[in-house]
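Chain A, query sequence.
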Amino acid sequence: MKTFISLMMVMALLVLAAGCTQYHAQGVGAGGAIGGIAGALLDRHNPWRGGVVGAVLGAIVGATLTDISMRASEEAVQQNRPVQYRTTDGRGVYEAYPLDYNEQTKCHKVQERVWEDGRLIKDQIKEVCEGQKTEKRY
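Chain A, predicted structure.
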């Protein structure tokens, strides 16, 4: 039974990662790992069950947060103004600020900041690049 559950967990993570970008896959992997560990620790009677449930939920949350980050960064670049998202309860805030543009690399720099309960938990600068396809292959 444990082997079957493990196989199902791996299959679920692969299905989630199949339609994702590299960044989504990183979010799925990190969220799944953290959720799996937390679930196994919290379910003392059946750590396998807790690990599987935690990994699946963590992977979904990780992919969702990555998607919000990518969309907000692209939106900030397209509109050339700061973008802010808030959770419905107001405890979580995501902000993206466009900084500058590099003509040579065709990349925009965007500063991302994430707050949870009024505490800054993430502050990073990332690049959003304009893709130009010059060949028939990737």
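The beta strands are 83-86, 92-102, 107-116, 119-129. The chain has one domain: 2-129.
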